[in-house]
């Protein structure tokens, strides 16, 4: 089953230092028009070629005079000056001829006739004159070497007659997607295909870092074909990225190809994710093998490819802004690796709370949803809950401060609300994680979240939500924002091919079920129904298969992967599936009373009361919004 | 002399609100390829079209099995599985066929032969399987409306089969430079010409704000020609900028042209600089008249054009990061205007010190040198020295923290040092202001600066610098970093046409002199010499004309504007001028002793001791660097 290759385990710093010491990269320079140079980095100091202004000019609208001729003028003793003899009219910026040495402002003139004026005060030499070189002096430094050119620098350079400027050239970065399973976006997908999105993302990242990405065609897992593509890219580009095949599996050819064409310096770095990175060189060009898993790829792009590009263009190393936050959950970590943990941040009360993104967050979506990265050093087994940690920010601090954190039960309407908060370019954001109703209650208790959507039936009273809050959240004053009533039921394929009529049928017909995760209100509802029917979970095929959202359940049924699952009406209709109603339930928003005063929460309530929201609910179907936005104090 | 037009005096907020209420701007949308969408802003919510993965796949390298067949396997009871009967081999990411429901990792297999393996533990259903939709679920929200697309969003969108995305279109912003005096960069310059750099800077700014700049040809100050150009631009573009002619002078046609073609809503806002802005509309396109003075133009671009472009593309209003700082000098301000004051910042000791840029800083160069902007509200007469103020940052806070502030006497070698600090992409910066030696001493006393270059002769002892420091800086321990010895003398045109031999000749031959500003060591040296010769300043023609640097003095002579000035040898040679030596002097760096421990100061001392620095001094000529970098404690 293939040969096992052991990867090295360099520390990240050591790996970068070793790699940079081996690379023979030469920064390339180019001369470009100054007017197109914004964002480029100077490769030499820029000195002004002329003075600006390069002549004495008027600083005012008025008349240019010889100051000596104005001596003695005062309120009692007006002096008459004659045009073209004693003065000429000048506007701001007009040059001052040699015979004049001062300007009198138009406001200080009394018109006598077309050709003469009276003045009632004298001017000092050089008064109201902008002297030559006032702005920029010939031969003076405008910007130093290694300076990133801004629009204002362009002003000064062109004013100083520097019309061309030598800058570091952007590197062309070749991107080679490899993998027999890869297909282009837009292809007709068949089972086993993977859409090649990494290479597109790399191209956008390369641009962000200051390079120019050049995508090559997808190469199948074929040693010779990969070799040909790497050769071509190394000839045509300044830096080459190969994705993926960087691991040590059966069809991981990247390292061997680089080794044959050039040199592999490092294969394996003690980081997680991202360990199987390859740092090599072909034809004196850096060639980097990047793992295929999107989060690993992201870590390698940020921590290896970015510094290489920055070095190439003379850019200072990028530093993420960071923020101190309180960790809401213990983070486990391996002693062997430096770990990068995706974090959700929220300003809950007066503290920034950092919550590691759960497994349920997916891969690419976890990067979309992450607000920051927690770096856990090697040789640390984990970081305790409630520790203060430093989080590298992936979003604006202001956005984080204005984000409502929403952790709890899932409903597609949460997405609708998140969008409605933004649709007018609003100042507030909604960021949600789906961990089920009980998870939401725990997140509230832990101060991880502002709001928790829940739908928890009290079996004794037949009422929803209130008793759970009372039971689990102690004495702190709480409120419930009424949201929607919705219908739960069995989601089945279109046409209900197994003719399911009740939960009992799932067991009796030995159907493949898909369940929700522990703590989800919908799972509790299923368990409650099983108990009532005296059915053991073991009798349900697929009871162990856990999904995190109604849509995930519906997708598993829609794809023919399962026969049925419990979920809400809107999830079934969104996926074009059929639905057997079981019960109505109340899906509400639990919140600490004090948070009701937050501007963002007021906006949230406005939205769920709005016609726009109700329109969207009607489109989805299966919702009753008659109480939306009402508040119950607990 | 032309008709006086009175400008309005709207407050900045009111002006913007009124203007936005009048504009009929429609955000334009376009559909673009997702892979090219980074940096664009979504005009609608983006929902995933498919699940990703869209099939169950292996999370490990290993074998796919039916979990039921593994039941009962343990260390004592191995179970043998046969390929293609009980399992198939899968790599990470491979799809799992329907008949299997779990994966056993390759590490947990014992090879029996080519076609069979032994297992010693069972697997649970769905173990090591990445379920369909684990990353993204069909129909779930990827990013909301009004979201600026990042590379990671591109990953998720393409993975979700969203290959095209609707975004706000960048506006095309027409830029019309007007002015009879304007010439293109690279033209043969004659007195009165002004190089058109504003329009180039606008183009770079428009790009930074998110638009596409389109420069039109320079239009002379001719009403009809300006009208034609504005008409054309309003037809072809989404927004039009006219520069300049926005004021109320004789040849300021902009407002009249806009009024004829469309509507002027506002002409004049209570801000300084930037008051004579025009906010109008032609063919339903925003048309803005921007003043010509570069600093005014900058204020208008940042405060009016930026919000208009942001609004067009759905971008959130840009907020400069700001920082609290201690004002080192009183800022005077008019009650009539909201003022924008350019500020130099420095971390001196543990405080960030804000020093308003002096008049000598020039116009475009003051924007290049500014670290931030202090906004002084209307209805305030000024802000007292030592007040805590909020400064909007124009540079990275880290750059400011790593910048040596250098205020004092000018020498071209300060530019050389500033560049040498950057030439290897170093972490430290040097930012200088030229206020003369005494100005430097006062800046030290005021805690405005880290270092002060000075050259002050003690007339009694004939020694330089030390006695001044003792006299003016009280008891705080000081040091002097020895820098260079240099030659002062009379700078005269090439060939010394007036045959100057001594300072006395300046009076005797009635030559046009150019002086340095009050507090400059070179001015003190001149005064000292005049006194020795019993010459009154009144006898020197041009004594009142003050320049801030040696290069400015040399430039005034080089351009034939003056006959002579006092300055250093290197300034004369840089401008190709002749030089009559007067004396040698010691140009040293005064510093508080405690700052010698700063890493940036250590780097500064390394540089002035370096061969590279000495090479540059030899190129300039007239410097003795035998003691460069030596430290004298005072």
Give the termini separation of chain A: 62 Å
CATH domain class of the largest domain in chain A = Alpha Beta
**Helix content range of chain A:** 25-40%
Number of helices of chain A: 17
Tally of separate domains of chain A: 5
**Range of strand content of chain A:** 25-35%
Summed over residues and divided by their number, the pLDDT of chain A gives a mean of: 93
Unreliable residue stretches of chain A: none
**Over the alpha carbons, how many angstroms does the gyration radius of chain A reach?**
35 Å
CATH topology of the largest domain in chain A: D-Maltodextrin-Binding Protein, domain 2
Gross morphology of chain A is extended
CATH-level-2 architecture of the largest domain in chain A: 3-Layer(aba) Sandwich
List the helices and strands and how they pair.
The structure is a homodimer of 634-residue chains.
Chain A: H1 12-22, E1 29-33, E2 46-47, E3 57-58, E4 62-65, E5 79-82, E6 87-90, E7 102-105, E8 109-113, E9 116-119, E10 129-130, E11 141-143, H2 151-159, E12 164-168, E13 172-177, E14 182-183, E15 194-195, H3 198-209, E16 212-215, H4 223-236, E17 239-243, H5 254-261, E18 263-267, E19 271-272, E20 278-282, E21 285-290, H6 294-313, E22 322-327, E23 331-332, E24 338-348, E25 351-356, H7 364-369, E26 372-376, E27 382-383, E28 388-393, H8 397-401, E29 403-408, H9 412-423, E30 429-434, H10 436-445, E31 451-454, H11 466-472, E32 478-492, H12 503-508, E33 513-516, H13 521-533, E34 546-547, H14 550-558, E35 564-568, H15 569-574, E36 578-592, H16 599-609, H17 611-620, E37 623-624, E38 631-633
Parallel strand pairs in A: 13-16, 13-17, 14-15, 17-21, 19-24, 22-25, 29-30, 33-34, 33-35
Antiparallel strand pairs in A: 1-12, 2-11, 3-10, 4-6, 4-7, 5-9, 8-9, 18-20, 20-21, 22-28, 23-27, 24-25, 24-26, 26-28, 31-36, 32-35, 32-36, 32-37, 32-38
Helix pairs in contact in A: 3-6, 4-5, 9-17
């Amino acid at each position: 089953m293939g040969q096992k290759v052991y990867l090295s385990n360099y520390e990240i710093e050591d790996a970068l230092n070793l790699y940079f010491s081996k690379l023979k990269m030469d920064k390339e320079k180019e001369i470009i028009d100054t007017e197109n140079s914004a964002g480029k980095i100077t490769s030499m100091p820029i000195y002004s070629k002329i003075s600006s202004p390069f002549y004495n000019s008027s600083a005012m609208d008025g008349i240019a005079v010889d100051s000596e001729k104005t001596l003695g003028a005062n309120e009692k003793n007006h002096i008459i000056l004659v045009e073209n003899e004693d003065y000429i009219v000048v506007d701001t910026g007009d040059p001052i001829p040699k015979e004049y040495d001062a300007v009198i402002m138009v406001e200080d003139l009394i018109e006598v006739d077309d050709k003469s004026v009276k003045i009632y005060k004298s001017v000092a030499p050089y008064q109201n004159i902008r002297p030559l070189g006032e702005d920029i002096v010939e031969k003076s430094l405008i910007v130093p070497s290694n300076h990133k050119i801004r629009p204002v620098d362009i002003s000064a350079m062109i004013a100083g007659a520097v019309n061309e400027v030598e800058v570091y050239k952007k590197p062309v970065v070749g991107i080679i997607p490899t993998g027999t399973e890869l297909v282009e976006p837009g292809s007709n997908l068949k089972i086993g295909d993977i859409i090649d999105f990494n290479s597109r993302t790399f191209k956008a990242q390369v641009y962000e870092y200051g390079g120019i990405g050049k995508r090559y065609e997808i190469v199948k897992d074929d040693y010779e074909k990969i070799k040909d593509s790497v050769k071509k890219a190394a000839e045509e580009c300044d830096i080459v990225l190969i994705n993926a095949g960087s691991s040590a599996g059966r069809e991981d050819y990247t390292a061997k190809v680089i080794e044959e064409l050039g040199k592999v310096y490092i294969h394996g770095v003690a980081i997680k994710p991202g360990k199987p990175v390859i740092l090599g060189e072909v034809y004196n060009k850096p060639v980097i093998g990047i793992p295929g898993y999107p989060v690993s790829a992201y870590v390698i792009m940020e921590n290896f490819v970015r510094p290489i590009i920055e070095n190439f263009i003379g850019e200072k190393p990028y530093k993420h802004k960071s923020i101190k936050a309180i960790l809401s959950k213990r983070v486990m970590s391996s002693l062997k690796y430096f770990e990068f943990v995706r974090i959700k941040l929220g300003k809950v009360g007066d503290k920034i709370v950092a919550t590691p993104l759960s497994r349920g967050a997916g891969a690419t979506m976890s990067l979309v949803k992450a607000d920051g990265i927690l770096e856990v050093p090697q040789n640390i087994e984990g970081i305790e809950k409630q520790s203060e940690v430093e989080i590298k920010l992936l979003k604006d601090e202001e956005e984080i401060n204005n984000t409502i954190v929403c952790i709890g039960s899932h409903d597609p309407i949460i997405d609708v609300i998140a969008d409605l908060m933004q649709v007018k370019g609003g100042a507030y954001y909604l960021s949600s994680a789906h961990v089920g109703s009980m998870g939401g209650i725990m997140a509230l208790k832990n101060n991880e979240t502002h709001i928790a959507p829940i739908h928890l039936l009290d079996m004794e009273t037949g009422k929803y939500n209130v008793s759970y809050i009372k039971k689990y959240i102690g004495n702190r004053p709480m409120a419930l924002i009424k949201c929607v009533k919705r219908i739960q039921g069995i989601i089945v394929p279109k046409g209900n091919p197994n003719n399911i009529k009740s939960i009992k049928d799932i067991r009796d017909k030995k159907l493949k079920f898909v369940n929700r995760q522990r703590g989800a209100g919908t799972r509790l509802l299923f368990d409650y129904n099983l108990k009532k029917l005296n059915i053991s979970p073991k009798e349900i095929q697929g009871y162990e298969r856990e999904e995190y959202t109604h849509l995930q359940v519906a997708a598993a049924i829609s794809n023919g992967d399962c026969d049925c699952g419990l979920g809400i009406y809107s999830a079934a209709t969104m996926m074009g599936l059929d639905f057997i109603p079981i019960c109505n339930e109340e899906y509400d928003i639990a919140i600490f009373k004090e948070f009701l005063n937050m501007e963002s929460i007021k906006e949230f309530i406005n939205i769920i009361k709005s016609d726009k929201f109700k329109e969207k609910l009607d489109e989805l179907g299966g919702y009753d919004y008659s109480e939306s936005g009402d508040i119950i104090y607990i």
